Amino acid sequence: xxxxxxxxxxxxxxxxxxxxxxxxxxxxxxxxxxxxxxxxxxxxxxxxxxxxxxxxxxxxxxxxxxxxxxxxxxxxxxxxxxxxxxxxxxxxxxxxxxxxxxxxxxxxxxxxxxxxxxxxxxxxxxxxxxxxxxxxxxxxxxxxxxxxxxxxxxxxxxxxxxxxxxxxxxxxxxxxxxxxxxxxxxxxxxxxxxxxxxxxxxxxxxxxxxxxxxxxxxxxxxxxxxxxxxxxxxxxxxxxxxxxxxxxxxxxxxxxxxxxxxxxxxxxxxxxxxxxxxxxxxxxxxxxxxxxxxxxxxxxxxxxxxxxxxxxxxxxxxxxxxxxxxxxxxxxxxxxxxxxxxxxxxxxxxxxxxxxxxxxxxxxxxxxxxxxxxxxxxxxxxxxxxxxxxxxxxxxxxxxxxxxxxxxxxxxxxxxxxxxxxxxxxxxxxxxxxxxxxxxxxxxxxxxxxxxxxxxxxxxxxxxxxxxxxxxxxxxxxxxxxxxxxxxxxxxxxxxxxxxxxxxxxxxxxxxxxxxxxxxxxxxxxxxxxxxxxxxxxxxxxxxx
Length: 545
Ligand code: TEU
What we know:
single chain; about 550 residues; alpha/beta; CATH 3.20.20.80; 5 domains; 8-stranded parallel sheet; 5-stranded antiparallel sheet; 17 helices; about 30% helix; globular; binds 1-O-alpha-D-glucopyranosyl-D-fructose
């Protein structure tokens, strides 16, 4: 994908299970997405990233793939998928697939054939003998499980899985695995998809299986994070698969500092176009994501600035299917849901990079209102709850941890209307609908010219049409306890983005200077005094004569 196309993309992430159910099984489907294309085109997005829609036993909701070339029957058929690509294209929307290649499902044919003793397929996975009656090494696991599980009936062999035991890691030392993946990517590119979001892509190549240095989380990670082998693979995929199709790749990359990130997405290296880092998602945590504290706006500002300055081009996001809803992180959100949502819209569309929004963000959906663990489905949440139990953490605290951090917070069904099940489905959905749906829904937003959705539309339109926002440089002007301000400049023209990240009014920082006029305010007027609660403003700056 040329840099220009990349700069034009406004991406909307769909978590298909939770988007729209049309066949009445309580699970979203492809027809539901097709029916919503006009809504998305109206919103103004031109790219859709689909969380996995491949065949999967759904141990991790599709991130455990049992057939990379088939559609999950709950979601529909290959014909539905082809219709989706064609109908999206008619509306100027491209489809991005989720490429999960660190692991497969244990129900994938490759793993089954490995279990059946076929040497070729044993070599697709990482199978090791235990050491002195113990596990092959001391590594940790992303889902707080043991990363080694006995391989079939074997007494002494284990397979490695950095996620659930139903997600065996692939052996990227085997060139056949690379060939298989190239073939899978071409299969979907031939169907007309425009690119890939590459799941945990910087951990795929394990340098060694030696014991790791003891760490609080993920002991062993120094043996697989952003290894040279991984860089080689990404470069090969770029040259041999992505470039010939003009396709795009965004990588989800864990534990990256800015130097590592640069090595993965500097355009000269021809690996990834951009990456999702996590540091700004961690501004409200203590050590690990399970322990949340108050979101400190200043920390968020500093983190955003740091990454804006470090990378040539950023993937900008505040929400996805793994993260609690962003506005729910503000402790003083109460009464300001719409204001905070509009502020985030302004920020998302004015930072330098490609904006990604997650379904429901455009209507101000908040964290799920789960009462207890029985209402939560996510495998990670259940594992962490068990782990916390093992550590003797009291029940009340355990639940508090899960309630605030569970990935299901973002996965509650999309709220389309105030009808039963929020208009998501005619039957009971797979995951509980948020009880606020009579107030928070698409139908209501569509009828409100000053609503959250309307503001997203306005900002998306501006982001698409305005060269300063698209191409302009980034320069931070002010990072305070409440207010974040930065300038975007292009061809001698400047816009200044200002966000009040609190529910209290705030003075305009002096750093803004005088020669400016209000271009857009999330409050819908041109008032130029104190910033109101969670107000976003965009100023146009007159040239100093
Ligand atoms: O996520 C990888 C990841 O590191 C985390 O965001 C993950 O959600 C977890 O919180 C780690 O503690 C990707 C996918 O986005 C996620 O949905 C999958 O479960 C995971 O990979 C495995 O494929």
